[in-house]
Structure formats: structure tokens, C-alpha cells
Amino acid sequence: MPVTIKDDSQGVLYHSDESFEAATYNSPVFAESVHKLEFGFGKAQFNEMHFDGIMLGFGSMGVYQRLHIEGKDFLQRIGMHFMLKGEVTANISGIAKNIRTSSHQHNIFYNPEMEESLQIEPQPEMKIFGLSFMSDKFVQIAANNGPILDRMAERVENRKPVYYSKGYLITPRMLQVIDEVRNCHFTGGLKKLFLQSKSIELLALQCEQIEIEGRKSPEVQKISRTDEERIYHARDLLLAHAQDPLSLTDLARKAGINEFKLKSGFKKVFDNTVFGYLSDYRLDQAKQMMREGTFSFTDIADELGYSSLQHFSNAFRKKFGQSPSEVKKGM
């Protein structure tokens, strides 16, 4: 995919004409690579995997100045983007402008015209997970599998764009699947089979959420754009203080919204209570720390703000149906 990175004055900071044939990605042979880049304007590290028309990638970036990235994707693929941390604004040539995807949001895109651009503001750390299907593979998977996928498959077959004007919330289950992909312990054919199943699961989770959001959208529309932005800001503040949670009163004050609007709006936007959302986040973080293998259960409980190891263990069992030690043995 040819890529050009420019600064605000349209000066070229980086250009690459590197591109690959569709046959490379459609091959049944599993391929994996790691890329490390470092320039004056930023740095990045990404892991990429592809096989049978499926491509997965994840990594991190640090951006030191505003970047304008222009690309041409000749491969005809539909991409799912999960912004774990950071923010990016996309423009699809002749189709849509200023599609913003922020921390903890995801979106799905198909651009038959190939040309697209991104704007990325300076930010010390971005964490990204991506999943793409070649168009033929996507149609094969999506056709006759529900109204959302059917509509997408029809548009892809007819070379019509697919996109959503706003990002959707990354759910705890999506985070868990992404974590399982990043920490996959299988090798060879089993790894390929595992990643294929997780790719399809992520697609199903994404489409399920789009369908649910579509059904409840009239209620959510009652929230003003200003209040919605404040609720997202409250969510970011909530997670930033996960170890020592803010009270609802303090959270509302810092986010610039009254407590009633915060509670009711949070439920509408995130389909969870404020502290229910925080609990899910902490417990998903706990599983990640357990996978890393360098923390004791006591360390995890302390790091995530639980009052005691017993409190942590009880919350963990309630969410996952197993104790921390039982889950750890299965990792």
C-alpha cells in the first residue's frame, strides 16, 4: 500500500511505494512479521499476520507532530479498526470526511475508490488493533449471516462504500478477544485456526453491537452532542483514576455535567452503570496482568485499587465464573 506522510505545510516527511499482490494475502500459508520504525516525527512498532484472505495487526505509535497520512489501498479489503488508546481522524476520498475514532472505540470501513487519508494529532502513545478481510473472503463469511452482514456483503459486492460516521464503544468481550489474539500461544496450523476463529468472533461482536445500537439509537439521540462528549470525557477520567476511583459527584464536576445526566447518559451511551463499567475494565486489566506473569494476585489487587485480595477474588469469580488461580492455570 503506497503511503505518504506529510506535515501541516504539506512537506513530505516519508514516502513508500511498497505494495503487495492480493495473492500474497490470499495464500493459505500463515505469515507473520514485526515492523519497527523510528523517525523525527514519531515511532511505531507493529506485529502483522496474514493467511487465507485475513490480515491482523496490532502495535503502538508515538506521534511528535500533527501528521497527514495519504494512502492508496489496491487490495480491495474491508477493515475493522480498534483504537485501544489515542485518536485518529479519517477521510475517505469522495465519500466521507472527519470520521473520528477515539480511545476505546472501533469502526469498520470499505473504500472501493482506494484513496483515503488520516490526520493524527501529536500524542505520546497510541495503541491500535486492526483486522481486515479481502473483499471475496468477507462476502463469503458475511453472506446470509444476519441483516447487518448481509447489507455489508451486498455493498462490498457492488463496490459501494461501508463506513459508520461515529466510532462504537469497544466492549469488554472485544478487549478479551483482542487480548487472546495478542497473546496467542498456539503455533503452526493450530495458530492459524485459532486466529481465524477469533477474527470471525470479532466481526460478529462488532456487527452485533452495530445492530443493538441501531435499535436503541432514538433514545441515545436524546443526549445532546455536548453532553455526549462530556460523558466520554467522564469515561476517560474514570479509567484514569481506576486505582483510586473518583466519586460520582467529583466525576460529574470534573466532566462538567450534572450527576443525574452523568448516570443516565452513561447508561445510554455505554449500556452500563458508571461503576459497573469501571469494574469490567479493572477485571479485564487483571486478566492482562495475569497473562504477563510478573504480578502476584496481591500486586494485581493493589494496583487496580481493590481494598483486599478477597474483594478482588470475589469480584473476579463473579465476572468470569472462576477464581483468579483457576484462570491462571489455564493460561
TrEMBL record:
One MF annotation (Gene Ontology) recorded for this entry: DNA-binding transcription factor activity
Entries under InterPro entries matching the protein: Homeodomain-like_sf, HTH_AraC, HTH_AraC-typ_CS, PchR_regulatory_protein, Tscrpt_reg_AraC-type_HTH
Keyword Lipid metabolism among UniProt keywords: no
SMART domains: HTH_ARAC (SM00342)
HTH araC/xylS-type domain residues: 232-330
Keyword flag Calcium: no
Pfam families, sorted: HTH_18
Keyword line: DNA-binding, Transcription, Transcription regulation
Protein name: AraC-type DNA-binding protein
Organism name: Chitinophaga niabensis
Lineage: Bacteria, Pseudomonadati, Bacteroidota, Chitinophagia, Chitinophagales
